[in-house]
Structure formats: structure tokens, C-alpha cells
């Protein structure tokens, strides 16, 4: 595909979403629910695809088993002995922990966003948005996201898939070996967290602004994230002025998502024994747990000494949403091309 043809394709997709218009944000303080979906059957995408001259637009994603013997993750030794279910849960837990690590300015609260394995039902309260974790054989990007669509219900209705992470491409990073489980999980989780954050207004930042490497760094020229950096644990940067004049990636997430109590696992505004306490007890002692499964302190493990203590201290309390009503956000697609194709397609 030529550079001009690819750029026209990306422009057309962006204009299509822009044409949908600007919409008022979700209701004040509405929590967000994200469903990373390791697809098991082919899934047609509303927002992403690849135009094939003479054939039309291919928008179908296919399943990709990262634990298949043919993958680099297995051949390099990183996931030897891991089941597909174990890897999927570890990735979801790692994405969740990346967001839990953001400092809201109040030790008793965490961002008003939750993650679950599989698509979120639109019947649940809050803003449900899902992630395709699969493969599009023709798309070269690591992932793409519909910028600001977390606020724009016209661009992306509840329950749809405004993000993909291309497991085929992520598994095929050039010049690295996936020799540990952490290298595989960090690579997939970092890209997924990066794309989720685009839904809520976060832009790319330079890779050198903080250590650990920032989640919002990309392969863009100037201050790019290296391929090997993708295998290490990353975090949202707190460097002010990197997201507009006054914000960091972390502070903009707090502003745009708001917060809930760390023990309000169902994000209903109140910590109760009947709901949040029952969730904690059901997951006590388990690993690779999510916030909605009782992980109050964001380390992926539900323990009595930490999560139980936070729960007991919070019973009967709630927190008002920090998020201001958001208006005027326009949505468009943000691709995450691999470093090796940046020069070829002229995208950042």
C-alpha cells in the first residue's frame, strides 16, 4: 500500500467519525466499565479496518491465541507452561493495576474506571466500552483507539468496541525476545492501557519524560518509545505540562474520570458489607484479581491485611464523583503504528 493511499484511508475514517458530530458527555460522575475481550470468534469492527483495492473494506478481526505453540511468546520461552486463561487474566489484571496506580490526591479513592474480562453488558450502570484483543491480518498497527469517545456517545454507543490491540503485531515485535511472562504481559497490557486512556482525552508524550517509561509514549519520531521498552512495566506520568499546559497524564485522568472509594468495588457510590464485602470474601487469597473483584489496593492480590483493612475502614462511606461535566469533545481514530512502519506511512 502506498503512503498516500494509506493516509487517505486514515483521513476518511477520521472524517467519518468527525461527521458524527460533538456530543454531550455521559451523566455527571458516571463510572466507566472497560471490557478487554480476547475474542474467540471473528468480530466485525465498526471503526477499524483495511481497504483492499478491488475488494472493499475488511473490518473483521480474528482470534489470536498468544499461547499457541507458533507464537514468539511461546517459542521464546516467555509463556511456557501458561494456559490461555492464565495469560488473559494476567493481562486484564495488569491493565487494571496501571490505572489503580494513578494518584487521585486522596489515599481512600481510586479512578472511577473498572476492568473485566470479556465484553461489558450495557445493562450494567455506568459507561460500558469494550476492547478487541485479537488480530487483523492486514492492519500493521499495534493498536488503535477512537480519541475522546469515552465522552462522545454519538461516536461510540455504550457496549461497542472503540479500541483494538493487535495481538499478532504485538507478538511480532522486531528485535526482542519474550523470555519472561512479564515481557509478554507488559507488552499487551501497556498497549491496551495506552489505547483506553486515549478514550478520555490523553495524547502521546515523549518516552524520556519519566521513569518508569510513560504509558502514553509511542513509537513517534522525536522522543520515541523503543521496542524493548514495551516489554517493561510502564506507568502514567505525573509530569505537569505534558498533557496541555497544566496537566500530566495522571492528573488529566483524575480530572476526566473522577474517583470512587477504593473499596467501592461495584462503583455504586457506597461501600457496603452486602455487596462490596461479599465481593472481597469471594476473592480472598486469589491472585490476578481486578478492582471489581475486591482488589482495593491495586496490587492484583486480595488479602485480609490490606484489602480487608481498607474495606473495614470504608464501610458505610462513599465518595462524590470528582469528574466535571464534559462537553465539546470530538472523536477520531488514533493509530499506534510500529516503529518500523512509521517512515513508510508517515504517521505519528
List the helices and strands and how they pair.
Elements: H1 3-19, E1 32-38, E2 43-44, E3 50-52, E4 56-58, E5 60-61, H2 72-75, H3 84-100, E6 109-111, E7 113-115, E8 127-134, E9 143-147, E10 163-166, H4 167-171, H5 181-198, H6 249-257, E11 259-261, H7 273-283, H8 304-314, E12 332-336, H9 342-345
Parallel strand pairs: 1-7, 1-8, 8-10
Antiparallel strand pairs: 2-5, 3-4, 6-11, 9-10, 9-12
Total strands: the figure is 12
Radius of gyration: 19 Å
The helical percent reads 25-40%
Separation, N- and C-terminal Cα atoms: 18 Å
- The quaternary state of the protein chains shown equals single chain
Strand content: 5-15%
Q: How can the largest sheet be summarized?
A: 6 strands, mixed
The low-confidence runs, each spanning 5 or more residues with pLDDT under 50, are 1-28, 320-330, 338-348
Structural class by secondary-structure content? alpha/beta
Give the CA-based shape.
globular
Strand order of the largest sheet: 7-1-8-10-9-12
What string, H for helix and E for strand, traces the elements in order? HEEEEEHHEEEEEHHHEHHEH
Structural domain tally: 2
Total count of helical runs of at least 4 residues? 9
The pLDDT mean sits at 85
Amino acid at each position: 500500500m502506498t503512503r498516500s493511499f494509506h493516509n487517505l484511508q486514515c483521513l476518511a475514517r477520521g472524517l467519518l467519525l468527525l461527521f458524527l458530530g460533538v456530543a454531550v458527555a455521559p451523566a455527571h460522575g458516571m463510572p466507566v466499565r472497560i471490557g478487554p475481550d480476547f475474542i474467540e470468534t471473528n468480530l466485525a469492527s465498526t471503526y477499524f479496518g483495511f481497504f483492499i483495492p478491488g475488494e472493499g473494506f475488511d473490518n473483521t478481526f480474528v482470534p489470536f491465541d498468544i499461547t499457541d505453540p507458533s507464537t514468539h511468546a511461546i517459542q521464546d520461552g516467555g509463556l511456557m507452561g501458561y494456559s490461555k486463561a492464565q495469560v488473559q487474566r494476567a493481562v486484564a489484571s495488569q491493565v487494571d493495576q496501571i490505572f489503580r496506580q494513578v494518584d487521585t490526591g486522596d489515599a481512600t479513592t481510586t479512578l472511577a474506571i473498572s476492568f473485566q474480562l470479556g465484553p461489558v453488558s450495557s445493562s450494567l450502570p455506568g459507561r460500558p466500552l469494550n476492547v478487541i484483543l485479537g488480530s487483523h491480518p492486514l492492519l500493521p498497527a499495534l493498536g488503535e483507539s477512537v480519541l475522546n469517545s469515552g465522552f462522545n456517545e454519538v461516536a461510540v454507543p455504550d457496549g461497542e468496541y472503540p479500541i483494538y490491540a493487535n495481538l499478532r503485531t504485538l507478538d511480532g515485535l522486531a528485535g526482542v525476545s519474550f523470555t519472561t511472562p512479564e515481557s509478554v504481559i507488559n507488552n499487551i497490557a501497556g498497549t491496551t492501557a495506552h489505547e483506553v486512556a486515549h478514550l478520555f482525552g490523553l495524547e502521546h508524550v515523549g518516552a524520556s519524560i519519566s521513569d518508569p517509561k510513560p504509558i502514553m509514549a509511542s513509537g513517534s519520531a522525536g522522543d520515541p518509545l523503543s521496542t524493548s521498552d514495551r516489554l517493561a512495566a510502564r506507568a502514567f506520568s505525573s509530569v505537569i505540562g505534558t498533557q496541555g499546559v497544566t496537566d500530566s497524564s495522571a492528573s488529566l485522568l483524575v480530572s476526566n474520570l473522577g474517583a470512587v472509594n477504593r473499596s467501592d468495588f461495584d462503583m455504586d457510590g457506597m461501600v457496603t458489607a452486602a455487596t462490596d464485602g461479599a465481593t472481597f470474601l469471594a476473592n480472598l487469597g486469589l491472585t490476578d484479581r481486578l478492582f471489581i473483584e475486591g482488589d482495593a489496593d491495586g496490587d492484583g492480590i486480595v488479602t485480609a491485611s490490606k484489602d480487608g483493612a481498607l474495606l473495614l475502614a470504608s464501610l458505610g462511606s462513599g465518595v462524590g464523583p470528582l469528574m466535571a461535566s464534559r462537553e465539546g469533545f470530538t472523536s477520531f481514530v488514533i493509530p499506534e503504528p510500529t516503529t518500523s512502519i512509521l517512515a513508510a506511512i508517515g504517521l505519528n
